[in-house]
Amino acid sequence: SVPLTVQTTGSLIAGKAIASILINNASTYAITIYGEKSDIDAIASVPVTINVDGLGKESSKTYNVTLTKPSGVRYMSTKSVAVAVTFGNEEQKTINIGNKISQKNLSSGLTANIISSDAISVQVKGVASVINDITAEKINAYVDLDGLTAGEHEVEVKIDNDNPLVTYVVSSTIKINIQ
Q1: What is the DSSP string of 86-103?
Q2: Beta strand pairing call for 33-35 and 73-76
Q3: Which residues of the chain have pLDDT under 50?
């Protein structure tokens, strides 16, 4: 049994955000997948992608989505779902995350240290009921150090985000010293 995860493509009209997403009238929805144990053990969820480009004037939209079988899955308990999306007015707030930034893809044998001292702030966008619950502790900021070698580098701060109801904007870079 694995959950369905909704991902969005496109952009809503200015001033609007996604307020909620329901799959078959439930906020969380799981399906049963079948296949070789070694293949399906690696599957944490089944993605569902919807296009929201240009939407937001209306209060909601329902998509009838045919599920795509992930590689290694022979059969799924459900072949299609109804994804209901509601829209609301976008609000934003700025959260200071300090220097709580993790590192990804650092080549083995190297170490990286942040040498900028400026605290990083993140702009959080979404409907009020969603973004009010977001704190600095819930924001996973990171720098991707893939391909970087020893020396000083200016790198972009990114945010891990698996929540289609929230948009994070970081306009900061930090200096990193790799040794």
Answers
A1: EEEE-EEEEEEEET-EEE
A2: antiparallel
A3: none
Contacts of 142 (CB under 8 A, 6+ apart): 101, 102, 103, 104, 157, 158, 159, 160
The 10s digit of each residue's pLDDT in 31-51 is 999 999 999 999 999 999 999
Question: Three-state SS for 168?
Answer: strand
How far is it, in rounded angstroms, from Cα 125 to Cα 75? 38
For 118-133, write each residue's pLDDT tens digit: 888 999 999 999 999 9
**Which pLDDT score, from 0 to 100, does residue 116 have?**
79
Rounded to whole angstroms, the Cα distance separating 154 from 152 reads 7
Sort strands 140-144 and 101-104 into parallel, antiparallel or unpaired: parallel
Show the beta-strand stretches assigned E in 25-172.
30-31, 33-35, 46-51, 60-66, 73-76, 80-89, 91-98, 101-104, 112-114, 120-126, 140-144, 151-156, 158-160, 167-169
Encoded amino acid at 93, one letter: K
